[in-house]
Write the structure tokens for this entry.
Amino acid sequence: MKNPVTAFIDKKLKKLDPLWQAENGVGGQRVRFHDKTGIAKYREWRGVHDTMVDYLAWLNNLKSMGLMVAMAPLPVLKGIWEYRWMGSYLGTFAFIDRLYQGYRGPELKIAHMHMHAIVQSLTKKIALVLSNDRRLGGGPLTDRMVPMDEVLPPLFMAGFPNLIPIPLQTLPEFIICDIDQQLEPFYIDVAESFGLAADVCSRCAAETGVTFNDDFPLIGKAFLSTNMPCNASEATSMFQRRRIDLPDFPVTLAMIHNEPGAHPYSTQMLRDAIKFIEEEYGEKYDWDALFARARHMNEQNTIELEKWDFFKTDYSPLSGISETLYRLYGWASVNGQEDYFTKVDRKVIKIMRRCYEKKYLPFGGKTRHRAFLWGPSAVYYTDFPTWTQNCWGITIVLNMDSTMGHNMISTTDPEQAIKDLAEFSEKGVMRHHAVGGWDNVNAVWDWAKRFNCDMVLMNDNVACKGMNGVHAMMEEQARELGFHFIFVEHDLEDCRTISRRDMRNCVNSYMSVVANEEPLDPTLVDFDDSEAW
Amino acid sequence: MKDLRHLIYFENLLQEANNELVSQAVDEGKLALGYNCYYIPEVLLNLPGCFSSRLRAPRCQSADVATYYMTNRNCPYVRSILERAIEGGYNYLSALFGAEGCAAMERMEEHFFLLNPVKNDRFFVTIIDPPMKEDQTSLDYYKAQLKLKVVDAMHEKLGVDTSEEAMRQAVAEFNELCDIITEIGNFRKLPNPPITGYEFHVIQLVSQACPHYLILPYLRETLEEIRTREPEPKFPFRARIILAGSEIDDPDFTKLVESCGAMVVADRYCFGSFPSRERIEIAEGETAFEAIARHYLHWNQCARFMAGDKIDQRHTELKRLVDEFQADGVVYESMKFCEFWSYEKVLASHVLQNELGVPCCTIEKEYALGSVGQLRTRFQAFVESLEIKQIQAKEAGR
Amino acid sequence: MKKKLCGILLKLALVLFGAFLATFTVYMFNLENKLIYYVIRPFLNKHYDSQKRDRRIV
């Protein structure tokens, strides 16, 4: 039941609402923005209630950032001065605004719960890393930190309760590229200035540039690298291990991971990694400590599986980037190690159950297509799913990476637990379905059917040799099975090769020419955001 | 120098994957087993009744159909192989033993069962998951993969004898081939060798592209011939270089380098003799299969290895070759769109030049040798820089 | 006493309302992002571009 006062105000101010504007042909989402820069003249008016939800979430995130500075004022300031990537974090608020344009009601509430979980976790991590970074003077926890490759799931490290696993590339590269599309081209140029070919995966080129530019925080006593997810990522480790100059152990899990023979090997590889850490850090592996965190991961995965049941219906208030980013960060970076994420999951699933019971149609019931997003997504265009929703009514029901390791991990038997962990880890970011054989990639159609999707958006990372290698087969399969199918070309972390605008045009062309549909919000069809973060 | 008696014959054999000797062996009832990568031990594919055929796509001018399947942003080697398969150039194969050496290679090998381009009823494909380190865990996995997807597959699907005796016999025959190629290759260590890099490249390639039992008599004769061959009165090149990096299966590439004045004295690339022609030694208490797996994992120089010792091995091995073959420098090449070698090229050129004091020139190449003007200029400039270094060294020594 | 308490509560309410007004204005007019985009980031970028870093392969 709506409050009569807010209902009255909403009625009076409805013309400010971009959704109303688009519906009535008098404007839309893009009207609020300065051309090119992506800086909004004013924030989105979503009605009293939802604007207040958004405002309070903004305040809450501001509080987390304030706390980060309060926790380690000097290291944080030094960090901003020292590291180019730290400056990019200042774009976080604009980033959140971009992601949740057009969100209302439970969609908005869940989105902000998810985002705050990420912000509070990330800000703590930044403060922790910077206050123990040797480059900035070090700290009491410097030698208790274990730098590890960001795509190696850190859950198995929970068996070392006295150590702090830090996904090394997450802060300077992986997350920050989501926030600021202008950052990684700088690092890519650094790597290429040393002779690296311009056709390699831009994510890995950027990591290499961070290495060459000496922009990694200096922490820990030993480094865990990995062969995940793919070729170029493996190759970047060659430079990182030498530049970081710590004893290193490559955790090389099975590449063809859908075969029975793969798991015993990956299991032994994890055992070897544990032994390496025991020797380098003088710590003993504690299975009970692992079990405690595995329980959280299991609960999160159990809730995730229940979420999937709701995703299959039209009544899920969770979709698009709100779903993807949270799952990606919560799985790959947190990986069961923070209680906060379990609490958020418990709250979110309650909202989702309620929405289902009420047959709540998200996004004002304007969804026209249910799409599965497949292949590694463009990191510089994180709000792409928001755009497809607002512009064409394409709801991204689920993203390939959200299907990452969801097997349960034994919390009683160490032997079984390590086997479960191996299987869980093999199916990490950009790996479960992009690597390890044709069947994994080709699984998209089954997933799309299971989730009642009529469309598959295929992320076409122009530098991904593995996915390029199945280009025509995917197209032929789509035609045969009758899916709407769009290749969305992108260059993962280099917005100069294929801009956000170019990516939008891939969808625009299909929707207007092939599907013969009209946009929901014409102001979003074509615009220039080349100078935006 | 007097022309080698079999050189033209060898060159002709390299014009087709399904060459005269391959056809002869198939007609004699032998099973042709294809492979692309060093991770698949050549020796295993030469068990009794079989012969190995390392896949090449000679004279491939366009890969349009394969490009449709794999895009033009993918490795030209794998596209050329797929194109040749679609053209029917590998219909003689009974099996393809693939390796997930890199993503592009794996995808190409997958098309061999997705498109069924090889018109041979017995034909099948397996793809191993090769490890990236040399520790015990990796060796065990490598053995398990080879056992399951090569040895057992050969036995169960093709009825090949994979017993210990058969393996020992294959190793013995393989070692003979290696000894011959190694001895021929070692002539390149001499100050004025009786063989050119191009000739050696042709000889090495025929040893990989032809059935061993049919090419061996020619190789034996060629070795005898080289033993007594008179070199040019004066070393005809201006510099000695090592060619290193990713895949090269076109001897014309070596010819191009040599036409710029640099003799290729050692070949450390995929399809080269380093590695591939090292003897397999079976240790006491070891089975032949165990020795093969250990040997191939140890000598493998692939840029995908991640462990520090294997990364260092790539560079120390190259330095060893520079010293033994008295090379003045290294040309480090990578195939266009090759992720691994693009990275390794950057690291290796740094290590070679700044840590090991070896001059290095890095280049990127296509599979088919098309317009070579830019490459020629690069090689000529490199040769000149090596000459200047030689002059400077002489002056400093005076 | 009660009057004093009311006074304090009133002041607190005024302060909170003032804080709300100030922060809501910043929020609604996107002032923090404008400040960062047009002032802080250009300044920081200039600094980063002039930094001397130990740039090398390994």
